[in-house]
Amino acid sequence: MATTLTARRLLLQRWAAGRRLLGTAAEASPVGKEAGEDAIYVGKPVSVATRDDTSVAMPMSFKTGSVVGKRFYRDATVRRADDGNGWTIMLDYRTLKTPAKRQLKLHSRTLAMAIAAEWEYQEQDGIRPFTMPLMKLACTALERVPLTRAKIINNLMQRFHQDLVFCRSPADDELTKGVYEKQKEKIDPILDWVNTEFGVKPVVYTSFLGGKQDEHLAKAVETVLKDANDRELASIDAMASAAHSLVIPLAIFRGRLGVEESIELIRLEEDHQVDKWGLVEGGHDVDIADLKVQMSSAVVFLHLSRRHSGVRSYDFNIDATRGIWARVFAPKAAAAPLPVIVYYHGGGFALFSPAIGPFNGVCRRFCSQIGAVVVSVNYRLAPEHRHPAAYDDGVDALRFIDEAGDDVPVDLSSCFLAGESAGGNIPYFGGEERTELELRLEGVAPVVNLQRSNFSWKAFLPVGTTRDHPAAHVTDENAELAEAFPPTMVLVGGFDPLQDWQRRYSDVLRRKGKKVQVAEYPDGFHGFYVFPELPDAGKVLQEMRAFVDSNRAAPKSTTP
Predict the structure, then answer these.
(1) Which one in 208, 228, 281, 425 has a CA-CA gap of 20 to 30 Å to 359?
(2) Sign of the C-alpha dihedral, residues 368, 397, 540, 519?
(3) Does the predicted model carry a pTM greater than 0.70?
């Protein structure tokens, strides 16, 4: 994310200066070549042609760790491809090409900007491919994977049975007992995830020669690899090579693991030995740094490459006279009726819509990873429309969905309400009282602070009322809850100033005999899960999926 933002700042600075990238046609001529160096072939400018005929192609040694020549360009920028399908990278007026001299065309502008940032930060004395992992992965996905896909999958599956997460140290040996205990603590939850995700319990063994996993498990894993697109497969292959594990990359791919957790699992045994015998400088520390680069870059490439191609979306009007509409996210194919998640976006009751990038993205992830049809509702905003306008709009949206359904198989008996911040009116509430954490995290936590909260409530609540109004103070012990009040899941972030109110809400539900599940994320801030770059965002999706699965209505009988 930092790399992408840096590239964006560079682009904005250049655009603001009114600089244009002008190109010219060319004969191929080597640039930056000295004795013992590979040539970088670029277009030689002449005065009569355009940048579209000018390019720079990296040599094949780009895929190795050698220096491939001096920096020959001033600026690295991005532009839309000539056919309008994808994005290309420009080194001054030259279009960047792969080692095989194919145009480096990327489907994602964000990924293109990240790779441009790698080129931007090359030193003048030489271009160092080992500092451009995203560029290397992009070339692999474009050139190697399409030609050797079957071989890559076959190699991954051959190593699957010897996966490090399946190998367990002996419990009865004093030398390995400590490792065994750590494996049980850290790896067993991943084995449970494999069982839940693929429906087969993996075999754990202690032999260095490995074991044999159930054929059904191997087939299920192979299907995931075959269904992955070229970019996803390139990422998984790179992670598997660094991790000596296929399960760990698959857990990242499915949102179960983040980068830091993955590195901890990969280095579990070695870190145990380091704790016991000490760190070897120039050895262990270099290995750790290299592993972090390989895993992190592959995860970033994976996230920036995803199109959510299995999800389609469209908008429909609920009440055009009031500006109420919704964006529906549905799988392109669904064999069985799906649960419905009705989502209300955040923004302090006064900002945003379902079209905003973070909310649009998180709803796509809900759809693809939870397996549900998601309906993201656009409700009227304050201060033009105060309480109860947003609530009325939310209820009307539910009634509309109940009557209209959807053109994919849906199970309206399994309808879940979800919301971020004000949209949930669960994490976003309060009273006149200021809690301990509201005061302690003031000026420390991002997104929410006392000034913004005060403005939001003043804009939303009826004129003349205080934050003790029932719409805000939902933790009141006198609040009436229907007998059929549904099970509830509350996400609590350790850096959310409103977490004291969230816990009070959960406590009130418990005291009133309602089923409530509290998911704690110590490093989470207000609304953290809408940012897929954060490791905890994947964990939230896993918990939400489990919550939906465990609280779905029983399937209706088809017996006459």
Answers:
(1) 228
(2) negative
(3) no
Q: What is the pLDDT of residue 74?
A: 92
Average pLDDT estimate for 224-235:
91
Alpha carbons 40 and 125: distance in angstroms, whole number = 14
Do 339 and 366 form a contact (C-beta atoms < 8 A)? no
pLDDT digits (tens, 9 = 90+) for 311-340: 888 888 899 899 999 999 998 777 688 999
Determine if residue 36 is left, alpha or beta; phi over 0 gives left, psi from -120 to 50 gives alpha, anything else beta: left
Mean pLDDT over residues 500-528, rounded?
Answer: 92
- The three-point CA angle 319-323-329 to 5° equals 80
**Residues in contact with 382: Cβ distance below 8 Å, sequence separation at least 6, in sequence order:** 349, 350, 389, 390, 456, 459, 460
Is residue 47 within 8 Å of 28, Cβ to Cβ?
Answer: no
CB within 8 Å of 96: residues ≥ 6 apart? 55, 56, 58, 88, 89, 90, 103, 104, 119
CA distance 246 to 158: 10
Non-local CB neighbours of 292 within 8 Å, separated by 6+ positions = 259, 263
- Is 51's pLDDT higher than 50? no
Q: Are 393 and 326 in contact (CB under 8 A)?
A: no
Residues 6+ apart with CB under 8 A from 217: 194, 198, 200, 202
Catalytic residue positions, numbered = 421, 496, 526
Phi-psi region of 371 (alpha: psi -120 to 50; beta: other; left: phi over 0): left
* Tokens matching residue 157: 């599956």
Amino acid residing at 241: S
pLDDT at 24: 25
Residue 382 CA: distances (Å) to CA of 15, 386, 387, 394: 35, 5, 8, 14
Q: How far apart are CA 243 and CA 167, in angstroms?
A: 14
* Omega of the bond leading into 388 within 30 degrees of 0 (cis): yes
Mean pLDDT score of the chain: 81
Reported as a pLDDT band with limits 50, 70 and 90, residue 95 is very high
Tokens for 27, please give them: 């004969």
Q: Is a pLDDT exceeding 90 seen at residue 272?
A: no
Helices marked H in 246-381 = 247-253, 259-266, 268-277, 284-305, 357-365
Amino acid identity of 31? V
pLDDT value of position 310: 76
Q: Which residues pair with 319 in a beta bridge?
A: 324
Instruction: Tell whether the model's pLDDT for residue 94 goes beyond 70.
Output: yes
* Residue from 341, 351, 353, 358 nearest 315 by CA: 353
For residues 357 and 336, is the Cβ–Cβ distance under 8 A? no
C-alpha separations of 154 from 32, 149, 181 in Å: 40, 9, 33
Pair 172, 206: CB distance under 8 Å: no
Give residue 37's pLDDT: 39
The C-alpha angle 175, 178, 179, rounded to 5 degrees, equals: 90
Report CA-CA distances (Å) from 123 to 39, 131, 158, 196.
17, 11, 41, 48
DSSP letter assigned to residue 205: B
Closest C-alpha to 346, from 397, 418, 422: 422
